[in-house]
Amino acid sequence: MPSVMHNDCEELTLLELLLQLEGDIRQSLEPIRVTPSQGGVILFLRRHAEANVTFAATALGVRLPTMVEVVKDLVHKRWVTKRYSVEDRRTASLRLSRQGHALALQIEQRVRQVEATLDEQDRKALGMNQKCG
């Protein structure tokens, strides 16, 4: 597995770097009582209004049962609303509530603060310098 220099002294594998980032993001989101999974889904829904659970799970690379649980928590906290299809009651579109939109702004700010701590090599290893489109 390729390794990444970190802070000019220690080499971390990509997996170690990801785990470290997950911890940093978790710590950053704790004060607003959001988990990294919840934050990721909220930011995804901000960009993909009306997505359904299956689409969100596929796009984020999360197992469907995991996504169902995360969405259930977000609906319970009133950060996300579900609107069921009239054609197929098994299908529901997800949308951020007003609270969810406000929370998304806080999450983005906190994630940007964590991103600001990354050096150029970490950004390159994570594919953050690539431009799409």
Question: Which range does the strand content fall in?
Answer: 5-15%
CATH architecture label name? Orthogonal Bundle
Low-confidence stretches: 1-6
Radius of gyration: 17 Å
- End-to-end CA span: 29 Å
Helix count from the secondary structure assignment: 6
Give the overall pLDDT as a whole number.
Answer: 89
The CATH fourth-level homologous superfamily: Winged helix-like DNA-binding domain superfamily/Winged helix DNA-binding domain
Derived from helix and strand composition plus strand pairing, the structural class reads: alpha+beta
What strand line-up does the widest sheet have? 1-2
Shape type: elongated
- Topology pattern, helix = H, strand = E: EEHHHHEEHH
Task: Please explain how this structure is put together.
It contains 6 helices and 4 strands. It has 133 residues and is of the alpha+beta class. The protein has one domain: Orthogonal Bundle (Arc Repressor Mutant, subunit A), CATH 1.10.10. The strands form 2 sheets. It has a two-stranded antiparallel ribbon with strand order 1-2. The protein has a two-stranded antiparallel ribbon with strand order 3-4. A hairpin with a 3-residue loop joins β1 and β2 (10-13).
